[in-house]
Structure formats: C-alpha cells, structure tokens
Amino acid sequence: MNFNLKTVLITVLLSTALFSSCDKKKSEKDKKETVESEILTQEVKAPEGMVWVSTKTFLMGAKEGDQYAMPREKPAHKVAVDGFFIDANEVTNKQFREFVVATKYVTVAERPIDWEEIKKDLPAGTEKPADSILQPGSLIFNKHAKGVVSMANYGQWWKWQIGANWKQPEGPGSSIEGQDNFPVVHVAQEDALAYCKWANRRLPTEAEWESAAQGKFEDNIFTWGNKAEDLDANANTWQGKFPTENISEDGFDYISPVRSYPANNIGLYDMAGNVWEMTSDLFNVKYYETLDPSVVLTNPTGAEKSYTPSNPYQIEYVMKGGSFLCHASYCASFRISAKMGMEPNSGSDHIGFRTVATKDMLAE
Length: 364
Description:
Blueprint: H1 5-43, E1 50-53, E2 56-60, E3 77-81, E4 84-87, H2 93-103, H3 115-118, E5 137-141, E6 158-162, H4 189-199, H5 206-214, H6 231-234, E7 240-241, E8 245-246, E9 276-282, E10 297-298, E11 317-320, E12 339-342, E13 351-352, E14 356-357, H7 359-363
C-alpha cells in the first residue's frame, strides 16, 4: 500500500478532527450528567440505600451474541426509560422485619390455607387433601435431589415445606438469626406490594429493571459487560452439576448476603444471581413478538395479559436476574434480558425483590 505526504496529512487531520469531536461529545455528555446530578440533588435527596438510574434509551431484550437467549426475549427493541431511584441491593431480612414490626403484617406463607380459594385454580372435582397437608408453607430447593431424569421436570428439585416462611427459610427449626444482611425470601408478590406501600415505593417495571442492570451500558448481555467467563466473579450462581452437585467454589452453598459481589457500574449489587427479583410486568412469552422493533417504546409497562403455554390459565408476573440456582446447563438467567414467570400468590427460597421510587413519589 502506497502512502504519500498528502495522504498522511489528510489522515492526521481527519483523526485529529475525529478525536476532537469525540472529546467534545464526551465533555458535553459528562457536563450533561453533572448538571442532571446537580439538579437532582437540589430537587430531591436520594433516599438512603438507593441509587439514581439516569434517563436513557437502550436495547431491551436478547442481544447479539447471546448464546443463551430464549425466544421470549426476542426480538430486541429500543426503549426509553425516565430516571428513577432503585434499591442498591435486594430488600433484606432486617428491612423486612422493620416493616413487619411496624405493621404487624403476616405474609402469605404464614397464613392458614383456604381450600375454597385454592381449588379455584385446580381442575373441577379435585378432592380436598388431608388437613395435615393443608398447612402454611412455601417452596424450598431440595438439597438432596438425586437421580434427575429430565431437566424439564423441575419438581425433582423442588418441594413444598410446611412451616417455611421468611423467618424460617428451611422450615421449622431454621431461622434467620445472624442473617440480617441476607435477601428476604419466601415472600409472595402480595407481601412485596405491602412492603412497598409501607415504604412509599413500588416494584420496578421490567424496562426499569433492565435499565438499572445496564447501568451506563446500553446493549450489554450481562450487568458487568459481555464476558461470560466473568460470571463467577460477579454473581452468586450454581457451581457444579445442576441440580445434584454444588461445589460452591465461591464460598456460598446457596443464598449469600447482599453485596457479597461487586456492584455494577452505577453501584447496584446482585442484579445477577442470588435471588430472582419481582417486577410489576405480566409475564407473556409472546409479548415481544407483538412489538415493532423500529419503534422506540417510552416507559413500557409490559404485556396487557399474562400467557404461558404450560400454564395458560394462571396469571404470572415477570421476575428478573436469576438466582443462586442458575447454571449455564439449565436456565442461564444471569443475563440482563433473561426472564421467568412467577405466580403472585406464593414464594420460594430463591425469590426476593427490590424497590424503586420516582422523584414525584418522594415529593409526596
């Protein structure tokens, strides 16, 4: 390839202009973010334990190069989301206890079971089980799962535990003593909403959750970047052969205290792994298929109705972020776009939540 003086000069001048333009744009962006931050500080003080997520437009849904992306995450589409505050970590046992003490609230998992209400969701003619079975409780991971035949049958590693609730996460005899900094679990959506009302907060929309998980990014696969090999250093997920072998190289067999892993680039912890997090959006596996990828959605609130082929009559809500049970061979839900459905009337030992607030909410 031949280079002459004129070509070199043109190249240098263009490069200088390009870098100057980039520096100018970067400077303008930094100035804009600084001004926005200063205005925000003047208008409303950030609540303790919360982080501001700036207004931005980003790519929601499955990203290019995401080998684990599922059909319900496609097609990717642009969304614009206004700024908001979000908890820096999942709501903890300590925080939830403060709510319970102040309100005398009783969670769904602690309440007597109403057979008349339950049978509405069962096939007609289902016989009432023995009273010894109809006891308050919740779902827990079966730590002794062996001989798994089909990964499609998740009932092999889940079991209903009578007496399991947020205070007794593994059932009678267990407790959360010394676990103030652990995410509260065994909470149903009703419980989370009651907490939100008490705290003057709400659950995030799925779009808000993804905006927070992206942080300063706009189209990344993971909350820490795009390198799958960085998973173990950034999230509490299953290590070993799921669900029968857990080698726990990270030091955590199952759930871990909040903030045990690095925050993302805006200071949010556990946006991947540890416990699933609730959102306010209805779960519909066909929702993204109805969207026009060329249209930028502003502050979307999700599908108008819930739809899951395996459970078409049950209403489910979107949960995000994956949990300590996520593994590449199973759900790989430690990705920003990943989502699963959760029934609103029950909890488990791997589902929690975090809350959001807007400037308007805080000004009330």
